[in-house]
Amino acid sequence: MSATMGSLTCLFLVGTIFDVVAIDHEVGGDFCWNLPPTLTFFSEWARNNTFFVGDRLKFMPGANETHTYAEAKSEKDFDECVEEGIVFDSSIILTLQNNHLGPRFFICTDGNHCNMGMKFTIHVLPKSVTMPNTAVKIHGLLPMPILFFITIMANLIFFL
Ligand SMILES: [Cu+2]
Predict the structure, then answer these.
(1) d(Cα 46, Cα 156) in Å, to the nearest integer?
(2) 114 Cα to the center of ligand 1, angstroms
(3) 3-state secondary structure the chain
(4) Partners of 119 in the beta sheet?
(5) Range among 18-27, 49-58, 65-74, 93-102 with highest mean pLDDT value
(6) How confident is the model at residue 74 (pLDDT cuts 50, 70, 90)?
(7) How far is the CA of 27 from the centre of ligand 1 (A)?
(8) From ligand 1's centre to the CA of 137, what distance in Å?
(9) pTM of whole model > 0.70?
(10) Roughly how many angstroms between the first and final C-alpha of the chain, as a whole number?
């Protein structure tokens, strides 16, 4: 009986840690979701962040600018700024769900903003029990094939 209680307590604690781990990523950092100074601004921002299931993306437009965000259906659509994906215009916050692991492609669908650099790819990783301030250490714990894949993807995105 006490063993069962112990297991339940353990499960509860793990669940609590999971909740604490979710991170809010303000897209573009302090710059927010606006027309960027360089074409690679947002892809560089994405490359410098690690994204896990449960994390949230916040697309905050500037006070005097209007932007949307949409998810391109494929890497090809993303590369070509094809605006036929899912447009999320009702909310500025997107929670990364468990059924969307791997690469996700985001673009702005306003005017030609996508071609002007309002686009980035993230690679969503499974949930981790690591605390946010030690998230960077996860790189060292990733199996080599995953790390290799991420590196390849990052380089592909950088050179496209
Ligand atoms: Cu825009």
Answers:
(1) 14
(2) 7
(3) CHHHHHHHHHHHHHHHHHHHHCCEEECCHHHCCCCCCCCCHHHHHHHCCCEECCCEEECCCCCCCCCCCEECCCHHHHHCCCCCCEECCCCCEEECCCCCCEEEEEECCCCCCCCCCCEEEEEEECCCCCCHHHHHHHHHHCCHHHHHHHHHHHHHHHHC
(4) 107
(5) 49-58
(6) very high
(7) 13
(8) 33
(9) no
(10) 59
What is the distance in A from the centroid of ligand 1 to the CA of 124?
23
CA–CA separation, 45 and 29 (whole Å): 8
Residues in the chain: 160
* Phi and psi, residue 12, nearest 5°: -60, -45
Name residues with Cβ closer than 5 Å to ligand 1, which is an ion. Answer: 67, 108, 110, 113, 118
Look up tokens 């590369």; give the residue: 79
